[in-house]
Structure formats: C-alpha cells, structure tokens
Amino acid sequence: MAAISFAPDPGVWLLSTARTSYAVRIDDTGSPCHLVWGPRLTPAAAGELAPSPAAEISSFEGRPPAGEELPVDGGARYGAPSLRVRFADGTRAFEWEPLGHRIHEPAAGTAELALEFRDRHYPLSVTLHYRVHDDTDVMERWTVLRNTGDEPITLLRADSAAWTLPARDDYRISHVTGRWSAEGQLHRESVPHGEMVLTSRRGITSHHANPWVMLDAGDATEDRGEVWSAALAWSGSWHITVQRTSDGRTAFTGGAWHDGTSLPLGPGEELATPHFAAVYTDGGFGAASRAWHSYVLARVLPYPDELRPVLFNSWEATGFDANETGQKALAQRAAQLGVELYVVDDGWFGGRRDDTAGLGDWTPAAKGFPDGLSPLIDEVHRLGMRFGLWVEPEMVNPDSDLYRAHPDWVLHFRHRSRTELRNQLVLNFARDDVAEWAYGWLTRLVGDNGVDFLKWDMNRALSEAGWPSRDDGQDLLWPRYVHNLYDVIDRLRTEHPGLRIETCSGGGGRVDLGILSRTDQVWPSDNTDAADRICIQHGFSQIYPARTMAAWVTDVPNQLTGRSVPLRFRFHVAMAGVLALGGDLTRWSAEELAEAAELVAEYKKIRHIVQHGAQYRLRGPVDDGLCAVQYTTKDRREVFVLVWQQVRRHGTPRPVLRLAGLDPDARYRDTRTGAVHHASVLTGHGIAPELPAGDWSSASLHLMRVEDEVARTRGM
Predict the structure, then answer these.
(1) What confidence score (pLDDT) does residue 52 get?
(2) What is catalyzed by this enzyme (predicted)?
C-alpha cells in the first residue's frame, strides 16, 4: 500500500501506491531530480535506477531541460522554469541548498514526504511536498515558499510541481478545449517539439481549457497502454507547460496564475501552492479516468457518499420572469414527476427583469415575491422537495443599488474603462470587505429562508484586474481572489452543514479539483442540447466523475441549437450524470409527463450505480453512430449501460457492445427482460443493444449478478 522510504545509499526517496512508484533524488549540485515514475518497484530496484555519470554534451546545452522536480530560473537552465524569483537587490537566479527531509503519516493510510531547501545566499526557503494514499494511485504534490528575511521577494512564477516522463519514441497529449456552450471537446495530438502551453488568463478555470493533461507514448487506447496524467486544484488563472526536448525527453510543469503576473512575498510571509495531483496507469485512458473518479470521490468531494437528488431548475422554463405564482405551478408539476430538489434560477431578486440590472441587490423582488420567498419555500417543502436558489455573488450590474453605493468595489484601473460583459462588472473578492459582505448576505439568505441548495454562478471573466487602493494589488488580487472565494464557501458550509452547492460559471467555466473540494456538483455547460451534451460529457468524464455532473432534460426545439430529439433520448443522455429537469413542465402533454415520471423513477433505481460506480466508455462519440457508456458498482453486482445512436445508416452491421469490469465467473440477469447472460460472453463477445428504429434512438440496460450462480461456480 502507500509507503515512502529513503535509502541513504544511493540517496533515493521512493514513494509507492498500491500499483505505482515514484522516485526522487538530490544530485551533486543540491538540485532535486526525478528518477522514475511508473509501475511499482521495490526500494532495491529503485536504487538500481540511480543515474550513471552524464555523458559529455555540447557546451551550448547546459543542464538537461527535463528531469528536475522543480526547475528553477538559474544557472545554465534553458527549459521551462517552475520557479522564478526576484530578490530585493535584483538578483533572479535561485540556487538549491538541501536542508533535510521529513517523512510522516498525517492520517491512517496516508504518507507524506517533505524535501526542505533554501537558497544558498538569499532568505528564501522552498519545501517540496509529496503525499500518497492507500486507496488511490493518485499522488499529490505542492510547494511551500517562505521569505525568511527582512526584505520583500517577488515571485515571478511559482508552480506547484514539475513531472518528468520516461524516455519513449514519441508522446501524445490529451486535453480539452472549447468555448461557452461547447466546453470539454477532447483532443489527442502529438506533443510538439519545444513548448506547448495550456492556460487560462481569465481569472477562472475557463470554458476554453481545463487544468489537466494526459500523456501517452502514442499507443494507448481506452483500455490498454501507459498513461501519465495530472490535474491542478485551482479555480483561477493557471498554466501548464509541456515540453518535448531535443534529447528525447518529455516533461511538464504547472501552477496557478498566468504569464505576466507576479506575487509579492513579504518578510515572514509564506505561500503554499495549489495541489498538482497526478496518476500513472498501464490500463489506458479508461483506467486513468476511473482512477481520477475514485480519487475525487474518496479525497476531494465534501460529501462523496451522498446520492445527488433529481432536481428541477426554472431557468429555461421562465427565464427572468420568476414569480411566486408561476414557480408554485412548476413546483407542483415537478413534485408529481418525482423531483426531489426545486431550484429557482435568475430573476428572483432586486430589480432583476433582464441581465442589465439588479445584480448585487440580493433581496426578493417585491413585484414577483411580495411576501418574500417564504410562501414559495414553504410550498416546495410541503411538496416533499428541497429548495434551492441561483446566486451570482461575485458580480454586480452598474444599474444596481450596490454599485451606486460602492463603485470602488469592482475590479478596475485608474483612468481606464470598466469593460462590461453581459452588462456586469466583477466584484473584487480579493478585498476582505467585499468577501465579508458576500458571506453576510449569503448566510442570512440561507439561514433566514431555509435554503437547502445554491447554484453559485459566475458569468464572466476578469478584466481590468486592478486594485488601485493597494500598491501591490494588481498582482496580489489573482491568488487572493480565489482564496477569499474558497473562504466564503467554506464558512458558509460550516455555518449551514446541510447546505449543498452547485458550481457554475456560465456553464463549465469553473470546473477543477479546487472548486470541487468545497462544492457538490458542477454545471458543465449551458448547452442542454442532448446531441451536443454527449461530446461535452465525454470530455468531462476524462477526469471528473458522473457524481459531479449535473445534466438537464429541457424542451425542444432546443433554445440554443433549435434541434428536436425524442424525450427518451434527452433523458438517457441526462441519466449519464446527475439527472435534472429544466423544461416548462406546464406545457408538457399528459403523455410526456407520464413518460418523464417513468424515466425519473428508473433513474432513481440505478443512480447509485451511475453516481458511485466505475465508468467504462464503451464507445466514444467519434461519429454520429452508436455511443455507449457503462457503470458498474464496486462489488460488480450491478451494471447499467446507456446507449445513444444519433443516425441510423442503412445497411450497416448491427452494433455489438463488449461490456467491461464484470465478475468473470458470474452470470447477469437483465432486469427488464429476465434474460440471463454469462459475464464471459458479455465481455468477450458482447451484446447487441435493443434500439428503437430511426434516428435519435436510445436505450438503457440494467444487469444484476445472479448470486446463486456465482456461489455455485466458485464452489466447483
């Protein structure tokens, strides 16, 4: 299981999880260097890998650009640096001086290593932290920097960690790109020679990229091959630099902030970087994803064992026209369908009737809710549902009482325009008074009204990111904004233990391990079109588990795309995550309501498999044909499969799905038809899904292990 050992001769620290090992050493210059990251090794085997003396290289090369645990700006280093500092006298180069190490177990099943260093001359200490756990092959790394002197130090770059991969003939990178309403588009491409930078400069994780990577030697598939993957736990600007070097190595480094920013580190101050977690597997991209999913459930989410409720959200039904009468009518229909959580979206507060006014004035709209929220909340609770509200605490409309009272509270520079996006400006959450104001009205809103759930939105990126009242504000606000955001959420949850939160940023603009460590689920995209969602959800699933992915069933033609697909298809796509409804239920026909109630009931029977089981992507959305995803409980007793086919091509062979992750000795019964199948047949030869005729067809399959057959077979 998880273990950390140190062998003084040859001077190697070995970190091991259940299936993997990672080794590090200090070279003769005092620099921490990578040794190995891959399958599990014994300490003796790791010692055998200690490097031999370096061969002569050209004087133009300097140190190898890959291979250090935290490459610094200093000496003859020409690769991508992880740490760049400027000392008070203008010196920039950093030189390592080792001070020692600590190995300890902060909790049962967890081991930590701290490698301690300082600069050889200047008062800066650097500690590299490593953590491994018994229950996951994901290891965590972060760096702590401390100014031990009397003068300020400027951090020009302070990455969490650098990762070096073993030599291979080639390397391929997997990552996601996108934009608003088209997040999570998966790309796999060769790692270019030189440097490849993935980043967000927007102050949020962003719709356009996500802070994770997967790398393989170009030969990995969904179910086999070596994959090295890492993900950053940070909800602001970030960067990951991948480099393929002239000597055939591949490495990457990553951390918070973006190029051009710096952070002042005053005397006695300390900076702990975000965690940069990583995993190795030889089981392909699917095994890497399942390792991440298990890690998020075991080590990231606040309440991982909960089953997320079926929710209804009012946005696509009512838009800004939220009022007590209309919401009560929707709530009654939602309860009849089996909805468990009713959420009122935008339009419930202040002077809010469109997106031009009212943000910042967080009191119920007098016209729509003349007696406040209590009558609606009481009715929702009477109907047996929990109650939730949409909020956007980090934003303000210029047309609001808050902005008129506090125009200095927004991000801005002197003598520069205040750019409005979506008719709103960004409140400077780095300011403690702004964060305290937000916490104050949020805790009153939740406590005074019995609010069970918040959809926390953030509908634009940062611009004019200035803080004129502080000389160091323009740099300090980038990390402090995120830390104050985290603090407000943490305090709110401590004050209201029953509160649950969905993170949203115009859809998938803020999805990362940092925000997930303090929220319960994610709104991955404002695009609710079922066909588009298949690709968005496929990209989301590379790192993040279905338990965190909210998915709505909405009306057709879809508001964004104009596409119409059957209700059952829309449900089956949404059932791949946390099922929700978002259509105008008052306009649904009796037949649609009956079918919806049937599908909600079906989801409730199998959601424990989807939300807590292992996910297998049986067929990805590579074309407009068959796509399928499977979920299996940890004990392999239950299996649930969702199948979608957008276009049926005449004359093409009937598709067959080979299932995965079953108990090989078992038989499984189809709960709908009663048919019994041998696991060996399901995995080796496959099953042909029963799909309705025509385009936009879908199906689900629920299998349960035949227990007496398992006992009989194993007793032979």
Answers:
(1) 56
(2) Hydrolysis of terminal, non-reducing alpha-D-galactose residues in alpha-D-galactosides, including galactose oligosaccharides, galactomannans and galactolipids
